[in-house]
From TrEMBL:
Domain of life: Eukaryota
InterPro entries registered for this protein in UniProt: NAD(P)-bd_dom_sf (IPR036291), SDR_fam (IPR002347)
Key words of the record: NADP, Oxidoreductase
Pfam families: adh_short
Keyword Ribosomal protein on entry: no
SUPFAM superfamilies: NAD(P)-binding Rossmann-fold domains (SSF51735)
Native organism: Orbilia ellipsospora
Protein name: NAD(P)-binding protein
Homology family: Belongs to the short-chain dehydrogenases/reductases (SDR) family.
GO MF assignments: oxidoreductase activity
DNA-binding recorded as keyword: no
Amino acid sequence: MGPLYGVFTALRQLIFSEGFPPKPQFEEKDVPDLSGKVYMITGGAGGIGLELAKILYSKNAKVYIAGRSVTNGTTAVNLIKNEYPKSDGGLEFLQLDLSDLTTIKPAVEKFLESEKRLDALVHNAGVMAAPTDWRTEQGWDIQLGTNVAGPFVLQRHLQPILMETAKFAPKDSVRVVFLSSISAHIAPEGGVDYANIESKGTLTLSMFAGIDSILKYAQSKCANVLMAKAYAQKFKDSGVIAVAPNPGNLKTDLTRHNPIAGALMSFFLYAPRYGALTELYSVASPEIDQSKNGSVVVPWGRIGPMRQDIIDNCEKGGALKLWDLMEEQTLGF
């Protein structure tokens, strides 16, 4: 499979399915009261994460907005509380930085001091089209580090409470959401370049910096598809379900590092609320059960397709190979 095949696949999905989705079939009105349930959303201070936090809080859930900026997090908490003054839910900001793995364990320990359950973990935060020389504190390519390595470490620390919650929560209701993108369709053959992953994403995928950045973003988002599929294989008896949604093409600040990409995509962009509905379906729809574990979700809440070579690689152990690589490279955090 050559790179043009991935581009063709992405364009086909953009034009015929994921770019112009049908009307949402699962919305706020379809969500029951969530009193007593606890959710964590990374990057929940803005964009679709903020919109998802609003919906869950409006249904009386307790929502943790996890992110770097105390100012942005506090602003988001106050904004949501003012918008939904009748909610009996809870809202907390949890400070952590996915680009600095040393911040994650302390944040989780703080969370566990207050909570005995976690009904869904939404790995929503991400970086797109960043300069290729940007690195995380531990030397990862900024996109692979923020979009995959940081969420992987967060997932590892929260896995015990998710599994414990699945023992008493309604069947199939405990979820993990690894956020993907339509760009996953242009990822390397099989989904990821394992040599690139072993280099913490620092090896180039293209000699042209702009294309390299786009391909690394695509790889990071396809890696999240592999993470969901590996999770479904590795923890199939845990009662926790993992999915990898493409939230849709949305008007957020995700393209802030690449204004040209933002301008080109502007014709296909929708309000952030629609992306939140894709995530809401992933988190709360009763349609998702063990038979959908490891699935890809497409806008605005449907089980969707993925490139056949990526599916084949996962079925041959490629997803678990990526999981094991991430485990090895994040030991000690």
